[in-house]
Amino acid sequence: MEAVLPKILPLGWDAWTNIEDHHNGRIIVGWNASQFQLRRIESSAQWITCELLNPHTFSGTRVTFVYGFNNYGERTVLWDYIQRTSEENKFIPWAIMGDFNAVMRPSDRSGGASDWQRHHEDFPTCIAQSSLQQVPYNGFRMSWHNGQSGANTIMRKLDWVFGNLPLLTAWPTARVQFLPRHQSDHSAMIIALNGPKLRERPSFKFMNQWAEHGDFHEIVQRVWGESIPGNPMFRLTTKLAKLKQLLRNKHLRKEMGDLAIQYYKSILRGTRPAQGLNLGEYYNKAISPNSEQEDEHCWELSATGVCTIHSVWDNIRIAGPQDGGGKLIWHKWHIPRHAFVLWLASKCRLRTIDRMHNQPLPQPPCLLCRTHEENHNHLFFQCRYSQMVWQALLLKAQVHWPTIPWMEAWDWATTEYNSGVQTKMMGLLLGATVYCLWQERNRRFHDQHFGTPQKMIEDITNLIRDKLGTLRERDEMPESLRSRWNIPLRLGLLWWAGLRCSAFGLFQGPSAPLKRAGFVPSEGCFQPFLV
């Protein structure tokens, strides 16, 4: 190996191998010695772990390079090492990357054997228990190819890059690129640890709501059917420009507000003072009063005899039926972003895959379990991933949720929980869980970022604890709820008139010395006791 390294390394590079741990020297770690300084921490036949000492931007960061054995029994040592090292590096940025010779899920395979045996769970279980997250990537998904074609083609996702929480916190924009295969049967991996970048303005923006308009397909077909001379790229850009103008017209509203804004903008841009200001012509364009209908006053509608905006509004508006569930969504303890997502879910208006009109057929499966079709009913309650989260949280909160379809369960909840502390607690739990499940689904859909159920359970628990911990005493949180969620008591600072401490450390009152003093918990705060 010592004779081979100088032939393959660039000038000025250093390298390590694990030939001491395996006779083939299965791993080579090379680096530019003029730019980086590394310290070797540990190695074996399946991994080499090192620490970056220089430059200071990466100082302290640890990287483990992996080449797992082909036999699943021999990879057990690798899984044990990852779990042990994840605990040692829980406060240190740590990346682990390489050829693990294992897949995370059945969808990471194409061709060949399709069975999923018990030993296939070893790898995803190890990653989940180690609190590692897959670094977002682009490029080739199936990183290994057997070199065959046609029916003999076999592809696998065997190459992975994971990072722990300190790594992803230090470099939130970390990204991996899988390059096309060249001489090897594996795709090369490049991880970029860059600082946050300013978001650039996109060159083209498409609003999804355009596709929901009834005339969308007609507009596109009409523009695309026009004959435009020139090369293909010119014809494409010209048609896109025409299509953009037609779609933008859907947002132009020439009403009173827009006319007023345009008028005052012209005044501000001008240099002469405005003269002859007459708003009547603008109001006449937007308001057409009915002269045949007699005017009426509304202040007598108030029970107190006082005119209020509420009474006038109730008289002139067209009141529709109230939807149930308002107390579960917009209660006093609600978290705004959670409540909004829960409200959309209660209307089945979240953009799940079954509601996307531009998805190819057949539709891809649920992003959480990869086995069933994604819809509101499956995503939040019937998915294997969601069920694991719900079972733990319902046990923690000691509440009941029926195993029935989503809309039936929502109707049941609006009837069962309509007032009291239990309603607010159920709404808080339901909103946080639906929000986090939807957030995890979107991270997988857009960033290929996969979280574990255990991590989500911990996040939801912390969200609820943080919210309950900020409640005021008049919100009447029972002591049982406080102890169940481990909410700490508040420390109150009190002034005791006439109380002072003597030079000997004794507390003295107005008339006599006090031997002992302290605080005892009572009603959510600490009260003083004096002896």
UniProtKB/TrEMBL annotation:
Residue stretches making up the Reverse transcriptase zinc-binding domain: 308-390
Pfam families the record matches: zf-RVT
Classification via SUPFAM superfamilies: DNase I-like (SSF56219)
Residues spanning the signal sequence: none
InterPro entries per the UniProt record, alphabetical: Endo/exonu/phosph_ase_sf, RVT-Znf
Name of the protein in question: Reverse transcriptase zinc-binding domain-containing protein
